[in-house]
């Protein structure tokens, strides 16, 4: 039976700052009480919203219920926040005997159990710091979690101990006071708690005992006492960490020496089969040397076959492990430590690995990627510079036939690869040209990344060795003679595609190229032609598809296309997005006209590669098919690989589903068969409202997806029953899908007509101008932000963990994301939204710049182009517990939100102006603006842990720690954010 603690020492040296000591009365409070005595009302009215230097108002400083009721009548703001983001709920919780007052405040403010200040502190933190036991008991009755940690991972009980309020221990019975005391480092307090019946074997919700807390904070004297009480030194917590691993993770050398002296096994396997040495590699040499001396295995591998060398972040760690004879072992994906250092931008470790001359700069993983491939694809420019100085090849091809130069997504990276001064500044020796060694044995065959001219036996039996010219040959699955546009421009000379070495050994002499193959510049052979879209037609302007013509991009490149628009083509690879002249080559006469087809005429078709085929999946080039990128975009392509396409513009590099869109066969009728109307004709009847029982279909009835690859899409999971709209005489109302734009092949289609909103929407609103910060994950590419989704910091960290770095889209960061942007957003709600008691509307999803749901058009027609929000765990998505409390997701509609980036034009932007403007007024087309307000690189998050360690675990406590790390980085650079306005969207207020 535990006894009450009544005689504990009060020598803790920690200070407190939240709340106020129970019983203290501020000067403002005393002045307020004086005002209530006679002539006070007028003065009280003047002071009700006055703030002191800490941003506190009278409502923050008074615990009397009667006085607060009077302040409420005088217009006091019960949601006002101090400079530290504290609500009256927080500060009053730190005043004595205020439970009745807290009850009143809770009626007019946020949830008393979940409200946080800017430091992540709850009301319980304020009450505990002030020793207000009665308030703590009331808070617990209201559902407050007395074990919740703030952004610095402090428990309310730790603040109570720091303030000397040891009498609160009974209030926290069952809330692991021994753990809080161990973290404080006060041995006397720990001893007294053990005497009072608190067991050193008791585990918290993370399956951790108090000794974990002591070792993480290097409280060796506390750990020694707990060990003397037989506390386990080898117990694993829910994250698979032992006390030894906890000490190593936080680089606590004194704690580690204590554990080694206690003969704790340093080779103990953690949950993912890793060891403490894997964690130590992310830190300095001191911890590694200590573990090695204690018998750690430097070549031990985890479940993914990664050794400690894979986790090194600095030169000291690399040198320590190599000095202990660590090997360059490949992971399950064939990634060597050099690959990992390159893709994560660990420049110091990269230099040390190369300087050791124990690895190869162009070593390939099982996908044929060199470290330079991975560094370039991840946007790690400093790492790429290091590799180039050590003679890495920028032209080596991986198994997809891509060289590093083709993976560059930013101008900065292109400049790095194009800068000859960066190459081979080191004495590379044999680092570059030694035979390939991946698994420790020399390979005698040619991979897809090596010149196979002198070794034509391909390692991959499905490939063959094809010659480009007399000097270069590569193992490929197939080869088309002529120019290959995926070659770097300076190397775009014709491929002969001569097959080399069909026998096991290469022939002594090779046959001359066939005379019918196209040469770089001579006249084409009689009757020859150039295939469309992917072969240079500069030397042979006759197109094989007579519906296409040879259009010039510049003096070197021309391609057979159905049509050509001068200027930048967004479907070109980003690094080659230079203007097309669209000069017609091969003479002015057009191809011979075809005979007029018999009635009925053929349906219209969609040109390949550049025009959205979602509404018309009939491709003009019969060798292509209409493949889906997402709910907004589909293109006619020769082939499609699901996943990210690096040739998409940077801001639209989202996954392709590669579902096929096929024409729907019209239902039979009783009349004579006839072809359906062209898809671009204007419907004769008003479009129908989508069925509430199934997902919304495209507005046209000519295409359907077959078959879907998945049943749900993250951002469009929840379907909605739209509420009825008032009818509009003489005007056809659009459906929730976007209005159809004119295609290039159908000039008869009309441009969208601007919607005329009701009068309240056209006028500035009387709403409050809100200014706060949103966050967005992005690659190194720079572009204007509109028609996007963003989040608060909790929401963005959930997105990063759930999608970007989850591994769903392969290793590394999805979309090439490298940083978290901080956006200063100013917004003002429209009057119809305010009339419903909301500042935010429906949070919609954007795919390729197009709103795909839910209910985009209805939302904007009724409420203007509003900023939408939803709380994580609430409708529309995600509707499950994300374990990121307080997370919010936003939508920011810009011009032409009904169309994808392929289909936006001036007419659409005029008809659908969006809500972005310079100074928000609350009118339907002027609801928000933003300015860039800083950024943090993802690599900055991993200062004290590897990427894998940082994102490990998905409990609320672990995730709050991740958010706290990100928040501290932003605060160190830019100061604390002001409070985020509550996400006040209520589904019931819109749909009833």
TrEMBL record:
ANK repeats lie at residues 272-303, 333-366, 367-399. The keyword Iron does not apply. Residues 8-20 have a biased composition (Basic and acidic residues). Residues 1-32, 655-765 are annotated as: Disordered. Keywords: ANK repeat, Repeat. InterPro entries: Ankyrin_rpt (IPR002110), Ankyrin_rpt-contain_sf (IPR036770). Transmembrane segments: none annotated. Residues 667-688, 696-722, 731-753 have a biased composition (Low complexity). This is Uncharacterized protein. It comes from Effrenium voratum.
